[in-house]
Amino acid sequence: MHVILAQPRGFCAGVVRAIEIVDRALERYGAPVYVRHEIVHNKAVVGGLRARGAVFVEALAEVPPQAVTIFSAHGVARAVEADARARDLRVLNATCPLVAKVHIQGRLYAAAGRVVILIGHAGHPEVEGTMGQIDGRVLLVQDEADVDALDLPAATPVAYITQTTLSVDDTRAVIAALQRRFPDLVGPDVRDICYATQNRQRAVRELCRQVDVLLVVGAANSSNSNRLREIGSESGIRSHLLADGSELDPAWVAGAATVGITAGASAPEAMVEHVIAALRALGPVEVSAMDGLEEHVEFKLPPELAGRAA
Ligand code: 0CH
Ligand code: SF4
Questions:
Q1: Domain of 224: which CATH number?
Q2: Would you state the pLDDT for residue 1?
Q3: For residue 260, which of 19, 186, 211, 244 is within the disulfide window of CB 3.0 to 4.6 Å?
Q4: Left, alpha or beta for 241 (phi > 0: left; psi -120 to 50: alpha)?
Q5: Phi, psi (5° rounding) for residue 69?
Q6: Are 275 and 218 in contact, with CB atoms under 8 Å apart?
Q7: Residue 168 lies in a domain
Q8: Dihedral-angle region of residue 252 (phi above 0 means left; psi in -120 to 50 means alpha; beta otherwise)
Q9: Cα–Cα–Cα angle for 16, 18, 24, nearest 5°?
Q10: Cβ < 6 Å from ligand 2: which residues?
């Protein structure tokens, strides 16, 4: 079996930063540090940090007063920030700067008197955070049917923003539907979909031209990982999402000469290696990586964590 690895794949700069924030907080302040929501959507990452003393909670009510508390990469609503202040928590914010940029953009549109439409997936923590960061009216649309169902006059001044981890192709279709309904529409085109999401989607589309089966390493609750698997399916390739090698079903790769592997932005490279090891248990495997973009994006840590402790 020939395995071809997508390039780029795996960790993005926002995930590296978020994990580093928990890591350094543990080092600097000692355990426990509290993390609201999974720091990124990956059980291996969360398990590793939990073993070192991070305590993952869904609600700030579970955090004792004054405790060090980290907000996940996906961002939080202003109400959560206010709740943290009311509880006197020491907050470190691991919201990805590219998610925070969307918050700012949405606020500016709202301040300019536009109805803000967020293109995203209902119930996802980034969507809840972004909607809760903008004063004024924010409407969520997931697809073209939601655009058709919007109860707004055509003359309404409208602006859209998007979740950072959407499918570029699906988003273009939703934006086109908005353009058809609202002549006074402004927005970022698909530029709110972050560089890492776009690069991984482009790479996987290319990879699908070379393989019989696609394996996407990532968590079931990871939006960006799910989008990669969908692109595989839309390309006509059998595509499966798996957290690690223990979830590999031998039937998925039976008869496949070439298997493509990519990883979501929250999936550690060790999980990719774990999947390759599971493939090797089925027979001989030769691994190569596709030619692709090298990413050099890095985000600064919050000032209180920059520089190592003495
Ligand atoms: O793809 P989602 O947003 O579900 O999140 P993840 O899998 O934790 O990946 C990191 C992205 C965080 C926010 O953009
Ligand atoms: Fe930031 Fe994009 Fe990574 Fe999300 S996927 S954490 S927006 S770089």
A1: 3.40.1010.20
A2: 98
A3: 211
A4: beta
A5: -135, 130
A6: no
A7: yes
A8: alpha
A9: 95
A10: 12-15, 73, 96, 98-99, 164-165, 194, 196-197, 224, 265
166 in contact with ligand 1, CB cutoff 6 A: no
> Nearest bound ligand to CA 127?
1
Q: Are residues 257 and 208 in the same domain?
A: yes
Angle between helices 195-207 and 168-181 (to 10 degrees): 120
List the one residue out of 101, 132, 145, 137 whose CA is nearest residue 116.
137
CB of 264 sitting under 6 A from ligand 1: yes
pLDDT tens, position by position, 117-164: 999 999 999 999 999 999 988 999 999 999 999 999 999 999 999 999
How many angstroms separate the CA atoms of 160 and 301, rounded?
A: 29
> From ligand 1's centre to the CA of 40, what distance in Å?
6
**DSSP 8-state secondary structure symbol assigned to residue 255:** T
Classify burial at 107, counting beta carbons within 10 Å of its beta carbon; exposed 0-12, middle 13-18, buried 19 or more. Answer: middle
Q: What is the pLDDT of residue 310?
A: 44
Q: How much is the average pLDDT of 251-280?
A: 98
Q: Which ligand is nearest to the CA of 75?
A: 1
Residue 172 lies in a domain: yes
The domain in which residue 121 lies consists of 98-192
**Residues contacting residue 44 through CB under 8 Å, at least 6 positions apart:** 243, 244, 268, 270, 271
Overall domain count for the chain:
3
User: Beta strand 2-5 with 258-263: parallel, antiparallel or unpaired?
Assistant: parallel
Over the chain, what is the mean pLDDT? 97
Alpha carbon nearest to ligand 1 atom 5, residue: 222
In-domain check, residue 120: yes
In this structure, which amino acid lies at residue 292?
G
Q: How far apart are CA 125 and CA 72, in angstroms?
A: 9
- Backbone φ and ψ for 222, nearest 5 degrees, come out as -95, 115
